[in-house]
Target: alkaline phosphatase
Amino acid sequence: MKGLLITVLTLTAASSTVLAGSQFTFSSRPADPEGQFPRLGACPDPHACIFPPDVSTFLPGSYFDLRVELHAYDKDTSKPTPKPYDQFKTKIRKDKGKWVNVNKFFKIKSQPVIENWKFNWTDSIEKHYASVLQNGQKPIQVAVAARAWRKLRLTEPGLYEIKVQYGSKKSYTVQYQVVEPKKPKKKAKNVILFISDGTNVGMITAARALARQHTSGKYHSLLSFEDFDNLGHVITNSVDSLLTDSANSASAYATGHKSSVDALGVYADSSSDPFDDPKVELITELIRRRQPKKAIGIVSTAYGQDATPSAFISHTRQRSQPAEITDQLLHGVHNWTQAVLPDVWLAGGAEYFKAPQSLKGNDYYKDFQKEGYHLVFDKKELLNNKKKDEKLMGIFRKDNLDTWFERNLYVNNTVGNKAHPDLSGKDALGSDQPGLSDMALAALEVLKKRGGEDGFFMMSEAAAVDKLVG
Model:
């Protein structure tokens, strides 16, 4: 691997990201509602919601969906739910200029249809736990009128405002900043993003205490990444909760947008459909669109449909959609950019590639082979791979891969697991499964070959920390 110009990013917690570029101040923005039970995350207005939400930040030309919702409700649950206002108007302006209808601004020929649904809102702890407390309190039913504009983009840097007008004098406005990307003196050809899921400061301290000697409380040396030139902390809350999860946090790394817990590549709206939420473009999709010859690799010791790897190839409100995520890995999503189809995919999660747990009983092994993937099922096949110029898919067992202990010390613990990736009922012995370093190095060989002068992007996740301490 000599001669590679590589940017290595190591992320050691489930966290959120900051886009490169200057920090902008958003003037006098409405604060999020206080309390644990908001009607819907990132919706401070009593009736209107706009997604992406207020103070979102974009790269010029990146794709996003725009969703506007109008909510109607009566907090007196003994009364019928009122009808939502569906004659709302949505406008946009740039840098405090003239307001323009969004259809005209984005050159949309036909107005999106109004969608209607209802959802329940528990606005207090008494209502949230009514079934446990048996207090007879009912949730507030909220009726919704909504529109969605799909696959939009803002191509010029600046401050944009989107306003929804409802009723004679009521309106709600959000601000977006489209940043001017920084132009580095030297541009990296290759990027490796290491994510050690769940590795918070406490885990780092524990690892250092076990791995490094010390004298009088002073360590002889630090962990390798603690010697990086640049280190930092991140703020990990989601748009509507203090605690995040691997889906929302990995999605923040993949998109530059904070969202809600469980969400992958979308902002969570109020509908029950986990696949209609407004999407934002992934870094991998951006690469495929702007640098189609750059290679992409996704490596994880988790099952491949788990939150972190899925954040780089899928869009859904609910991370718990493994069969559909497997399908998105191959086909992408409707009315959006092309599927990422990474050059390398190494992980677990075999059960979602064939019946009975695959989507509609499809055999995705055959489908990926038709797409030109070389398929490997164990460590030996991976390390002996001679087809460096072909796309590589390695699926090494059902569910998560076994940890270092089961692969090296307690292999007998994996006898009888019936987890072989061909779904034949055979065992996937720990000794037959590759470790993260095996997978990452094998992936780099393929990515270097396939990316060539255009380089590559690789995300490599160490998932076992989170699995073992969670």
